[in-house]
Amino acid sequence: MNKTAVIVEDEKHTAERLSGLISDLTSINVVAHISSVKAAMQWFGQNELPDVIFLDIHLGDGTGFDVLEFVEGYPYIIFTTAYDQYTLDAFQYNSVDYLLKPIKPKELAKAILKIDKIQPQSYGMAVDKARNQLEKKYKGRFLFKVGSKYQQVLAKDIAYFYSNDGLNYARKTTGENFVTDCTMDELEQVLDPTDFFRCNRGMIIRADNIKEIHTYFNGRLLLDCQPKFEYDEVLVSREKVKDFKNWLDG
Question: Keyword set for this entry (predicted)?
Fold first, then answer.
């Protein structure tokens, strides 16, 4: 018996293209196109669970994770999403399958091959972990110790975080520096990835404080920051250049 699939996608042309690709590449029967969280609630409450759900992350009246509230059981979930590095990191870290829009036939075929190999309950737990990671709130302010006092600084007033001589610092847009106890890895997790990007091991920079971008040796990029960073050149490592460009272009 052929497997069944439901497409949850609020862009009609995207849903139609995906349905066509599924028909061309597989024997899976697409039984429904759903365009909203509200419609999903109704459909999943009245119909048998499909084998596969192609689930758009961003819908007009909510998110793909909202749809999962109405799904009982453990179908194979393949998320579809436009480029968003933070979302992709969450999916990759938790081994959750996704397709980047515009969806490529080769990537779709690769995802479909996994259907019979997954352990449904374990995969469901992985989806839950990715959801928890994506829905956590980012820090809007930091508390720094200055002498015998503490000073509160809003995240939007921080130009960048950097490492120097074994310590990590936050530099305000006004040029003031504050020592932070957070590691760079910890900061990367709590800062809003829409605003901040880790361009190398020792620097996390805010988009609004990048003054100029220059090409550099070995495929890297050289950044001019505001306020100026005086300790070293601010470089985007070669392996991060593509993600950096996508981040700024988002």
Answer: Phosphoprotein
Question: 202 near 185, Cβ under 8 Å?
Answer: no
Residue-range domain boundaries for the chain: 4-135, 141-249
Convert the pLDDT of each residue in 15-43 to its tens digit: 999 999 999 999 999 999 999 999 999 99
**Cα dihedral value 112, 113, 117, 118, nearest 10:** -30
**Strands ordered across the beta sheet of 158-164:** 177-180, 167-172, 158-164, 203-206, 196-200
- The CA distance from 101 to 16, in Å, is 13
Mean pLDDT of 156-183: 96
Question: What CATH fold (topology level) applies to the domain 141-249?
Answer: OB fold (Dihydrolipoamide Acetyltransferase, E2P) (2.40.50)
- The full DSSP string for the chain is ---EEEEE-S-HHHHHHHHHHHHHH---EEEEEE-SHHHHHHHHHHSPPPSEEEEESEETTEEHHHHHTT--S-PEEEEEE---HHHHHHHHHTT--EEESSPPHHHHHHHHTTTTTS-HHHHHHHHHHHHHHHHSPPP-EEEEEETTEEEEEEGGGEEEEEEETTEEEEEETTS-EEEESS-HHHHHHHS-TTTEEEEETTEEEEGGGEEEEEE-GGG-EEEEESS---SS-EEE-GGGHHHHHHHHH-
pLDDT digits (tens, 9 = 90+) for 82-136: 867 667 777 876 778 889 889 999 999 999 888 888 888 888 888 888 887 777 7
pTM: 0.57
